[in-house]
Specification:
The chain is mainly alpha-helical. About 65% of the residues lie in helices and about 0% in strands. α1 packs antiparallel against α6, α3 packs antiparallel against α4 and α4 runs antiparallel to α6. It is globular. The mean pLDDT is about 95.
């Protein structure tokens, strides 16, 4: 993903994992269409990026997964179960 997003390597592990997951689920071509989300990620505004992600067809089609990814992005940390 670093070839497509110059800012990718500056992300912490949880946010990199979220981006990898999104790319795997959507494919790079579709992910590139998330203009507002990607602009917010590039700006480091992760709360806004999460909001943009949740305001998408992807989130309406896979709400549980989208919420999990949005939390990874906004919190910047993997949530521990239990």
């Amino acid at each position: 993903l670093g070839a497509s997003f110059s800012w990718f390597s500056a992300l912490n592990e949880a946010r990199r994992d979220a981006m990898i997951d999104l790319c795997f689920q959507l494919g790079l071509t579709k992910l590139l269409k998330f203009k507002n989300f990607l602009a917010s990620m590039e700006d480091g505004d992760y709360e806004l990026a999460s909001t943009h992600l949740l305001d998408s067809l992807y989130a309406r089609q896979t709400p549980a997964r989208a919420n999990e990814i949005a939390k990874l992005i906004s919190n910047g940390a993997h949530l521990k179960n239990g």
